[in-house]
Design brief:
147 residues; alpha+beta; three-stranded antiparallel β-sheet; 3 helices
Length: 147
């Protein structure tokens, strides 16, 4: 059984909500500046490059770099594959004070970290903060444990 998860779901949702406004703004600057000739060239280049090229590439790369595929034999994150027989997978919870929380999740108290530990020597091979909700982190935790 194969299960797919995204380790940065909150960031991806934030980018996709913001994307239509930036793409519209860059399209407006392109039409208003380049086609109608009402704006300076500097304004046209920066906004058009951000909206049409960089921002969609950033959304797609965020999705693919944080995609996690959990199977019976292994866990694959982006291009790295970790065998279940060689590694332990844990999701730990940590509580942050309000002054230490990120700006976009100021009201969330619990943050989760995925750690992949080598069974032979106990060294941490992979460690990443999960930018997801608590419910989604529990789904990932149950998928790692149940299989």
């Amino acid at each position: 059984m194969k299960q797919h998860f995204n380790l940065s779901k909150s960031t991806l949702i934030f980018y996709t909500i913001l994307a239509p406004f930036i793409i519209f703004g860059s399209f407006y600057n392109l039409v208003d500046g380049l086609i109608l000739g009402k704006a300076s060239v500097v304004k046209i280049g920066a906004w058009s490059l951000l909206g049409f090229i960089i921002f969609p590439v950033m959304i797609v790369s965020t999705y693919f770099r944080n995609r996690c595929v959990i199977t019976e034999r292994s866990v694959r994150i982006y291009k790295e594959e970790f065998s279940r027989s060689e590694y332990d997978f844990t999701i730990s919870d940590r509580f942050l004070a309000i002054k230490d929380r990120p700006l976009f999740s100021i009201f969330r108290k619990t943050f989760h970290t995925l750690r992949i530990i080598k069974k032979t020597d106990g060294s941490v091979i992979f460690e990443r903060d999960l930018e997801t909700s608590s419910g989604y982190a529990e789904k990932i935790r149950s998928a790692l444990v149940s299989v």
